[in-house]
UniProtKB/TrEMBL annotation:
Subcellular location: Cell membrane
Catalysed reaction, written as an equation: a CDP-1,2-diacyl-sn-glycerol + sn-glycerol 3-phosphate = a 1,2-diacyl-sn-glycero-3-phospho-(1'-sn-glycero-3'-phosphate) + CMP + H(+)
Organism: Peloplasma aerotolerans
Family: Belongs to the CDP-alcohol phosphatidyltransferase class-I family.
NCBIfam families on file: pgsA
GO cellular component: a single term: plasma membrane
Topology in membrane: Multi-pass membrane protein
The name this protein goes by in its record: CDP-diacylglycerol--glycerol-3-phosphate 3-phosphatidyltransferase
Amino acid sequence: MTTANKLTMLRVLMIPIMIVFIYLKPLQIPIGFFAMNINQFVFAILFVLAALTDMLDGYVARKYNQITTFGKFLDPIADKILVLAAFLYLMALDPSRVPLWAVMIVIIREFAVTGIRLLAIEKGNVIAASPYGKFKTASTMVALIILLFNDFGFHPIIGNVIFWIAIFFTVISGLDYLIKNRSTIFESI
């Protein structure tokens, strides 16, 4: 197994550990750090570490020519599960700040883009990430980190604005994938 794939596997294994920490009642003790309890802090730290493995595995795969079919398959799945776990956790904590409909936009976009990519692969095409998709990913990660750390003690408006920017780019990038790949979609109907 390549180093890049090991990093992806590590990210996959971190996700259930993050979720377990949410439910450990003995760790629901305030720590006085950005009004967080131990559970929230561990979840947030593990999320950051998992997000870093995402950046690192891509870098290692490209630099050391460790791009594999397994990595192409598992890496995007691990990314989606990581992001969705964080969104669902934040929605459970404060549904007025991270509403269900916004999380559903993220979920629908991810399924739609994955479906389009599968259709393209079936036809022998590879769909590269769009600039909008890159903005979506960057703004989503920044928003999630800010929200998970309770805005780092700053006014919540900063986290809210970045969250809504992430949702905006989620919609725009999803529409971009649909429009640019509409022929692939219609050919498969």
